[in-house]
Batch of 2 targets.
Target 1
Amino acid sequence: MKNRQTDKQLIKNIAITIIIFIIVESLLYGGLLSRQFRSLLIPVCINVILAVSLNLTTGFLGELTLGHAGFMSVGAYTGALVTLNMNLPMAIEFPVALFAGGIAAAIFGVIIGVPVLRLRGDYLAIVTLAFGEIIKSIINSMKITNGAMGLSGIELHANYKHFAYVFALTVITIFAIKNMVHSRQGRAVCAIRDNYIAAEAVGISVSRFKVMAFVVAAFFAGIAGVIYSHNVGTLKPTTFDYNKSIEILVIVVLGGMGSIRGSVIAAIILTVLPELLRSADEFRMLLYAIVLIVMMIFNSSQIKQRILSSEILSRLRRVKKEA
Amino acid sequence: MKKVKKIMALGLAATLTFASMTGCSSKSDTNSGSNSDSGTASGTSDETFVIGGIGPLTGDAASYGISVKQGAEIAVKEINEAGGVKVGDKTMQLELKFEDDQATADKAVTAYNTLMDGGMNVLLGCVTTGSCLAVVDLAKEDNILMLTPSGSAAEITKNDNVFRLCFTDPLQGETMAEHMITDLHYKNIAVIYKNSDEYSTGVYEAFAAKVAELGGTITTAEAFADGEDFNTQLTSIKGTDAEAIFAPIYYNDAAHVVTQAADLSITLPFFGSDGWDGILDTVTDKATVEGATFLSPFFSGEETAADFVANYEKAYNTTPDQFAADGYDGVYVFKSALEQAKTTESADLISAMTQIKVDGLTGTGISFSATGEPQKAAKFIKIENGEYAAAK
């Protein structure tokens, strides 16, 4: 019984993914998408990957981290340096860059994971914030990353023309993290969040799972970084400051801690929203902030709960079931 | 519960699709519009030529983008009121569309594409270097004439469709080194620069190379990454036998540097790069910057700029800075290119760029080399009695 249900769920998820993909692709190749929205496709995917991976540490592990942009920058620079120095066809170069970027970020995830074992809550947040800044300073002072001038002329292996690959990577990320959360490891991670002492008492190795969550999140942030660098073509250390980390955190909080679907939707909204507000000119960022506040209030209010459990929706559901 | 979420998700997806659809319908509108612009040669007046602009209007660097935008707006208004631009046998009106990029590379790309949706003919931008680098290859793909008012990194003009109105970072460093050593006969110079900033590093590196070439000595080069405390760097400068301090940094950092230097009773003269423009409004005590000299393409006290300054002050209630002047000149450069090319075709406009000579606020007889660099004289500004003055 249970198996059949999960199978159904899986098929439904795959169907939704394929439908979204077909819609976007046909819009893209049918020339129906304006250039503005075309150039938003990849940033949306990047933010989805970042938000979903940050959700693993913030939402499921329950630790507030403010250094996600640091992992992203490690991946971005590693990936960019790989393609800049390899000069091979994209089919070889880009997967290598993705892999290298992800692994490099994961290694940094281990490095940050070790001191993190000793800390929780606010302390951890500050350590990760500091860690992000350290990475920025290191990149700033290294020769190979070209310091403050940054890298440019990175081949555009991940721009809108390669949307299919980026979309596939995004879907893989979502499925990987979703499956991980529902696996034995994921339940252990959630148990640590819910009751640290109880988790330890039943024999869960808290430190092991904490590091694991960090490393996985860092790996995917690194992947997002590689996509970023191959979409824009230029990299500067200042792009990855703590503002970027907070931007990702905002997406996760808006989507709901521990809700992957929420993260995906919030990432889409928060990437597209500032662009939709372009016509507001100088009030754009003000409007954006106001919309953000309203959405946050709505998200945590009774109104949303009431709407979700209201008569109309449940009736709709019934109608749908009958049909 | 889960299903509801799914419905909501689908609803959102639908809204987004709808949003992009509406986006494209406006695109096809403007496309047909611009097609008739360039396609039909028959001379009807009142056609518009769209100048796109990209720069930071919000965020940390907002003041630069806003200045460029406002300067360009003044120029567009002037030209339109004077009857527009004569392009071949027809007269065209100019229209400025300026998009915000928050000084980030990825936002610059979306801003560029938004402008292309809006039927942009030429690009005045980007204001910041990072954004320029992200956009240059796109502009090459579309073969759009691009003129950056203030992006100063050397690689920006690598493509033949890109031109620059300001000096490059290295050129600023070299000019200042020549001025300090050849004109003012300083031998020992201390430097304080921001190593997390590409502009500051770029100016410093070229400055150091030129000083060495001219036989001067850099007693110490003090770097900082961020922050507002420069006591360590300044104390170390004080301990050397430097005769002057060169600070290729932006005015907000420079304001802290000069104030703290005064506190440490350092009396050495300061020299700066064009990032110093605007420092008098930032420092609390104007005496601390007295005697400082910096390089700037534009000086609002000049006679030739009087009209522009008056119009600008009337419209925006503030004195224009060099970025405003760059924006203003940029529009006039496009105007002469249009008049020279006698057509709105991008390829002709690009080849016209190397043939024109423009008398602007940032220099008289500005011309452009095929490599995209401007040819104009540098201006030195000295702070005297708490006011900007042209340095002798």
Target 2
Amino acid sequence: MSTLSVDHLLGIKYLKAEDIQLIFETADHFKEIINRSIKKVPSLRDITIANLFFENSTRTKLSFEIAQKRLSADVINFSASQSSVKKGETLIDTVNNILSMKVDMVVMRHPKPGAAAFLQQHVDARIINAGDGAHEHPTQALLDTYSIREKFGTVKGKNVVIVGDILHSRVALSNIFALQLLGAQVMVCGPKSLIPKYIHELGVIVETDLRKALQWCDVANMLRVQNERMEVSHFPSVREYTQQYGLTKELLDSIGKEIIIMHPGPINRGVEITSEVADSKQAIILDQVENGVAIRMAVTYLLASKIES
Amino acid sequence: MSQKVLLNQKEVNIILHRLACQLIEKHTDFSNTILVGLQPRGKFLANRLKDLLQSDYNIANVQIGCLDITFYRDDFRRSNKVLKPSTNEMDCLVEGRNVVFVDDVLYTGRSIRAALTAIQAYGRPSSIELLILIDRRFSRHLPIQPDFRGRQVDAIDNEKVIVNWKETHGEDNVYLIKQ
């Protein structure tokens, strides 16, 4: 397979396993490029990309921007907090105004689930979903699975547990889809109040005991508690959450095997993971960030190749 | 579709020896020279020349690299063919070195233009030369000519020159295919 089966990256659920393999193989080439002294290639020099962030982001926004610049694309950045959205402009009006400036591709983060799919139906540009509410965050899942592949050589047959706030997490849903497509077994672990009721229908194992989950897995992906998406409190206190679901060095040492620790960031040190674990050799958190640039370069490059010149 | 043999195994072998001798004439002991095969097909020719220089002309340590030009091409989004990258195998910097680009066929010259940009990621070479097995003359889109050429061929646009190597096809030969 040498081209993606999709014209937009709206979510992992629209991808095939071959698409992910192609993205990984392309990312391998870009990873070599971003480790050179001159990290830039001219492939996308005639492409303009708008990064529309209707929600706060540090890592994803920087990662997309650096990926686009490494490919020599022209980049415009837009943050909702400094825009006419505050004056009552609709999403489509905002985007169409930006597209009138001859933009070829839109990378969008939005607090509403389905925003990227909605946009794709109404505007004429390639869309990359950089996170839509608690729905999907496809590039995060791609870089997470790419990091697992890099560590183990394959994702197939690995046991991966996603720990924490599954209910409010777009990272969890995209990761479940991507891991399953690539042949991994997926478990979710967290307090019952933070695990969606019907999640077992996706074919994942549900576990509430962190120790058992760690003993089962090869990789633990620790998620942050998304306080900003909680309208009501889902657990008694942060202290209690940390006692039951915080990953400590003692707990990690006691399970009798070495596992890989991942975190999509931002980390709440001392809540879901201690500093000692986050900074340990088992944690590949900074590798994930580096791989994020290579993956976003690959996705951008592959989708841009489908734009008619 | 018809095909004609342009070079058989014996002729390819003679040409490889001649090209090796021409390289020695210019680069003597190759101490400051690096042969850069352009991926994917220039790699075979570069490896062949390296082996020949070592085995028949006692020039040890010929440095070799393989450069992928996919992301530097100027036909991204313009061609129906999907551009599939190959691996870069550039283990050394080319700063201050004499670089010899090695490729099997020179046609429009656009790959060489891309290679001239791509090589800059590895430093500023002292000089760059071009070695080609088959030079399809009168078909250039850019003012690029080889410094070392195996054979010049007149081929029209609907003809294709195919170079087969022992490593991949069991035999060295060059075909002209009419489509």
